[in-house]
Amino acid sequence: MIGKKREKLKTEELERRYDELYSKYSELQFAFNEIKVNADNIEKQDEEIRKLHERMRSLKHDMKNHLMVILSYLNDGDDASARKYVSQIIDKLNSIHSYIETGNSLLNHILNEKLNEARSKNIRVKAEVENLAFERMQSMDFSALLTNMLDNAIRACLMEKDEKELIIKISKNKGYETIVIKNAITCSVLQDNPELKTTKQEKEEHGKGVPQIKHIVEKYEGICDFYEENGYFISCAFIPI
């Protein structure tokens, strides 16, 4: 009888130690995954900055030739050709956008990738971004949240026939780290689809990803909101600090 009790106690002790070791293993695995994600994002960020610098160096190298061409047109009295050539240079400069640097490698990567995607689809973009860490959020959750919010807005912009505009504001406000995404609309989205349910109709593209956005925000005891104001559809996520 005593032997069985001792054996039971040993088994329970082994199970307890196993649970402790497994818990530590899970924590280490999670930490490793976080480090790997950050390292991958830093590598992508470095590559994006390198490409930007290469484009700027190329433009600087060509600028002397551009000025000589403009001067030649002006000397010949061909003001129209000079203006047209200057306009072409300005268009090229506008196509080279500055790199957003926030101090958060994951935020850098997502923002720059999505802003480049939006611009390539002729969407006018404005961004106001503070240096925030979103430390409470796991990298995968933060990535899914911001990516879904931006993808919804970009898809909605592409449905517009008039001017396509996307506004991004990431800031700290009253104890919350906030993400606010606005996209210009000509017709109300919420009037026909107040619950933002996913449908097959293109005009209701905002339904895609909304359940995941809500789930992630609720996971961190935050608040999310979707509303329309002054010709914009606005999606907001508030994550408590």
TrEMBL record:
<feature type="domain" description="Sensor histidine kinase NatK-like C-terminal">
    <location>
        <begin position="137"/>
        <end position="235"/>
    </location>
</feature>
<dbReference type="InterPro" id="IPR032834">
    <property type="entry name" value="NatK-like_C"/>
</dbReference>
<dbReference type="GO" id="GO:0016301">
    <property type="term" value="F:kinase activity"/>
</dbReference>
<keyword id="KW-0175">Coiled coil</keyword>
<dbReference type="Pfam" id="PF14501">
    <property type="entry name" value="HATPase_c_5"/>
</dbReference>
<feature type="coiled-coil region">
    <location>
        <begin position="108"/>
        <end position="135"/>
    </location>
</feature>
<keyword id="KW-0418">Kinase</keyword>
<dbReference type="GO" id="GO:0042802">
    <property type="term" value="F:identical protein binding"/>
</dbReference>
<feature type="coiled-coil region">
    <location>
        <begin position="4"/>
        <end position="62"/>
    </location>
</feature>
<dbReference type="InterPro" id="IPR036890">
    <property type="entry name" value="HATPase_C_sf"/>
</dbReference>
<protein>
    <submittedName>
        <fullName>Sensor_kinase_SpoOB-type, alpha-helical domain</fullName>
    </submittedName>
</protein>
<keyword id="KW-0808">Transferase</keyword>
